[in-house]
Amino acid sequence: MKKQALAAVIAATISMPSTADFLGVYAGLDYASNETSFSNSNATEDDNNLSGYVAFEHFIPLVPNVKLKYSDLSNSDFNNNDSSAMNAILYYEVLDNDLVEIDLGLAYTDTESFNHDASIAQAYGAAKVHIPGVSMHAFAEVIGGSLTDDDALDAQIGLAYTFNPDSYLLNVAVRAGYRVQELEFDNVAGTQEVDGLFAGVEVHF
Fold it and tell me: By C-alpha distance, which of 174, 139, 171 is closest to 31?
């Protein structure tokens, strides 16, 4: 029985698609120059914020990959605006080749702004398009949608350059782009919008 089980595991591993032939951890930190505004106010203020993420990807069929993200959305010019968003994401790689990568999944989002908070189930999608001949790719990522009157949006697009891309031990990438995040609460009039340019670094090991 043990030999049969082992043989089944080996066969399943060999027959796995190329989209699931690796095991790795991604961790990143971004620095953004943001503008914060509210739909019920004409006031806009600039500030600088940090955000970070960590993702674990594996080769086990049917088990989703995991990603955690955190964004500080506070703005010191708005009093008492301790604002943030945290996302716990489960996703699958539905396409992975030398040119295009596509991830789809679900996200559980915790948001906070002006002492109001909400927990939201959302959809998740991400894509990378590799530029042939260079260690560079374009990327996009979206977390959005809601089944309740609370809502949130996190969308970003940018470019990344990877150093030592052929290393099996550690890859380092620098990235930059544009990101917009929105928070909307059912019991609060108005939507908080934070948007701006960002730059950061990502390690893959």
Answer: 174
> Could you tell me if residue 8 is inside a domain?
no
Q: For the chain, what is the domain count?
A: 1
Predicted confidence at residue 3, as pLDDT, reads 41
Can you tell me the distance from the alpha carbon of 183 to that of 153, in angstroms, rounded to the nearest whole number?
7
- Is residue 81 assigned to a domain? yes
CATH of the domain at 160: 2.40.128.90
* pTM metric for this prediction: 0.86
How many C-beta atoms surround the C-beta of residue 40 within 10 A? 10
Length of the chain: 205
d(CA 200, CA 173): 8
Provide block-wise average pLDDT over 10 residues at a time, the chain (205 residues). Answer: 40 38 88 91 88 95 96 84 94 94 98 90 98 95 94 97 87 97 84 95 95
